[in-house]
């Protein structure tokens, strides 16, 4: 039997405090050969959260009667702020900012023993600070609270107050490879959110065998959604974890490594360069490949799909002071168009539908957003397609539309959707549906034992929509699926149950969305669309199935929390404009 070891780099020791989720998991995991048992008494060691009184600060922050159940407030400790809250009669003190993008959690939602971020929906346990739902990778610090003479005191380490994030304690690998050994316990194909969270979850749960993460990218896992929102961001600014993190926790990353076939009978993956790697457990998280135009001139220079930091950086460079055309008015296309308005001489958007986002957000919301773009000098060519791209001296000069209009273009960005990157699995015996997606069950298992799949390339049963099989290519959903896959590699019988949550940012305004709205038959709008301060409820029959908002925080997080609780929201509840049902305690 093997002991779990933890090796923390010196500079990380202060921020890795012991949490409920950071203990050795009392599970048996069948590796290659013998079972590895992690007993409950084999706890992961961790530095004491309060190493000395000189490193801590303690203060009375309020009277016990200042907070009622379900209330939150930020309190100042001198070295930083803390989120103080009262839940079920108990006071708790946590980090006050969401580790994902720094949202003030005091503006979020406290419900069912957790705090949900107002911006992107991440959830944290009030009792431990642990991350319970995504996006993001890190948890919150949990601080000591005591009551003396009707006053509430909070004690916190100064370092924790300044860090505002806590990386869970992880096992380290006790069987590292010598060079590129030909076998691994866990192979993860794809290093996006699903792949990275899977690897981290395995280590958090005490798994200490070899993990290999392979990616087509040149870079370690990075924040891909940022590419289209901030096109000139450099690769190092996008990194989700530094190189030292992977080294410290024994997660091997193979960059520019393409798996070309998977042999499920012999549990072996074959790479493009001929390298073969045996595995015991496999996660497939290959993501998707962008669709390209199918017209004359589609392969010429200066025509891009935004897939890598280099793509995004080159688009900005070529568009500066020149004419940019974006094909596709979905999320990626509209984010790119919004970003380029301050850089390019002109920005034009070509779209087959009548309004942007029409299938996702409906006609009225789409039109309101279109008006915002037009007010920012974006020209729309709707209900048409590209018929030809014309060059001058080998470089793009014009985009010809089927409506016979000709649009000047020095750079063209194509954002017309994506297809699952699963071609390498066609002969593998792993099931693919007619569109190339990998069907999985609620435990993220494929039809082959020991083979799991997660992220943009899967269809899975959506629990709160009667387990309807859906594909949801959202960043947050990929995180959640990666964790569930890891838990089930360790035989924990976890099920995917998260409520989908996504966001977009354009012209300094954020739109948030929760639920699954495909097939909506009505949209109930409260607020003012013209002022872009609204909430839109998407209904099917008598039921609210999704919600979108701008400048109406934290309503999307509140609705997500209601849906996560299992409660059905009826159409009549949102038609009246009375939102009191959303503010009730313990929904």
Automatic annotation (TrEMBL):
Q: Which PROSITE patterns match?
A: RIESKE (PS51296)
Q: Where in the cell is it found?
A: Mitochondrion
Gene3D superfamilies registered for this protein in UniProt = 3.30.390.30, FAD/NAD(P)-binding domain (3.50.50.60), Rieske [2Fe-2S] iron-sulphur domain (2.102.10.10)
Basic and acidic residues: compositionally biased ranges: 6-18
Q: Which residues form the Rieske domain?
A: 59-154
**Stored CDD domains:** Rieske_AIFL_N (cd03478)
Query: Could you tell me which InterPro entries the record lists for this protein?
Result: FAD-oxidoreductase/Apoptosis, FAD/NAD-bd_sf, FAD/NAD-binding_dom, FAD/NAD-linked_Rdtase_dimer_sf, Reductase_C, Rieske_2Fe-2S, Rieske_2Fe-2S_sf
One GO cellular component assignment for this chain's record is: mitochondrion
List the GO molecular function terms.
2 iron, 2 sulfur cluster binding; metal ion binding; oxidoreductase activity, acting on NAD(P)H
Q: What Pfam families does the entry give?
A: Pyr_redox_2 (PF07992), Reductase_C (PF14759), Rieske (PF00355)
What are its GO biological-process terms? execution phase of apoptosis
Q: Which UniProt keywords apply?
A: 2Fe-2S, Apoptosis, Electron transport, FAD, Flavoprotein, Iron, Iron-sulfur, Metal-binding, Mitochondrion, Oxidoreductase, Transport
Give TM segment ranges.
Answer: none
Q: Where is the segment annotated Disordered?
A: 6-36
Q: Which family does it belong to?
A: Belongs to the FAD-dependent oxidoreductase family.
- Record's function text: Induces apoptosis through a caspase dependent pathway. Reduces mitochondrial membrane potential.
Q: What is this protein called?
A: Apoptosis-inducing factor 3
What is the native source organism of this protein? Muntiacus reevesi
Lineage here is: Eukaryota, Metazoa, Chordata, Craniata, Vertebrata
